[in-house]
Amino acid sequence: MIPFATFVCTKTKQSSQKWLARTTLGQTKVETEKARGGLYCVRLSASIAKPTTATDIRKTPPKLSDEDTNLLASLTLNGQQRHLALRTFRTLQRHRTHCCVTKPEVQHLDVVDSANGGVIQYLLAACWKWNFSVFSLDVATGGRSVSVLLLHLFHEYGFIKEFRLDALKILHCFTLVENGYHRDNPYHNAVHAADVTQALHCFLQEKTISKHLTSLETMASLIAAVCHDLDHPGFNQPFLIATSNHLAVLYKNFSVLETHHWRMAVSCLRESRLLDHLEKEVCVKIECWMQSMILATDISRQQEFLEKLKVALKCADLCNPCRPWSISKQWSYQVCEELYQQGDIETELSLPITPVCDRTKTSVARIQTDFLRFVVTPLFVMWHKILSSPLSQELMQHLHHNQIRWDELLQYELEQLDEMSSVSEEAAMDDYALLVLEKDNFSTLLKEGLIVTRFFNDVNAT
Which residues in 84-97 are b (16+ Cβ under 10 Å) and which e? Predict the structure, then answer.
């Protein structure tokens, strides 16, 4: 009996074949020949010594030079922790495995839910409602909320039939997009992309917007929505510039994240070949429309894009405070956790800690109170004036209710702080005002919020 081995067959023009069986003990020659009556004759030779092969040579570890030895010694530092500068770059792509961001208490369901009464179909049927919970969809789809939602929307809008799109290419494209989001990000992940896309879908149902858009522009807007934070590293632009990030160098410190999101979106479209059958002019128009929509999410360039009424995606991106309290609260904790993670990294790198990212001095209630007051409220007041619809009225009601809830939580925190440290409430508020309004350490988000406020005041004055 021949032990388990790897056989190499040498075919000849004759009826016989020669084999070479390689084992750990050596090599054995095996020769087969077809005899009369359809039988095969097998001849085995004695084992021969195993010669040295190229594989054996490769297995032998090469001898390191003195320079390599010194380099390894400087990296290991006698088993101590390496300096942060020598570690893997923190903002490189982290592969996103297909699992839901939230921790479900139910068993994952299949992505393809063909049953009409299935959970996924039930959730998708309500995606036009503002109280839609993308967290539930993420749990039901096992972490594939982006690809499932976009395939459903493309079917509902009739894009598959109108533009002769391949359903498999649609799934491939948005699976690439889904994988492009970093799962480790508490906020800027694929679930956030699905949430923004669903919000934009609600806005596109308004006649004030839909009557000005063609089918091609509507499709490009949905693609821009799902790709608006693609490959987001989980850090803001000032951090990327301060750490000499490769993205900041590549895009010359100007709209770093937004430009990178747009280029990543174009790469996913081209790699999936979703639009290859369309004319070149149509593809260019879609890419240019996506570029203008994604760059509009840069708040510092708000005035430029408001003049072109490209504010829909920006409102969808910042719509979490306008959701029902249960959904809005969950998003608030996740975005603050991402801010706190940046503050932790800034501490490790001995960088000045952004005030809004310091978990030891700011709370979720403090961050959300100012964010809603300085950034969200001015934006959605103007958005309500543009839409003037029941949907915009619902947004403002949720925003007002959530603002009250966060103010109550902040007041409770200040009272607890007063009891613990014997500091008056007035002094605590003064300290907090210095933390937020100090010019040199002003948070980027609050800076942009004040810019938004000034701009809207100028618009109202004119």
Answer: eeeeeebbeeeebe
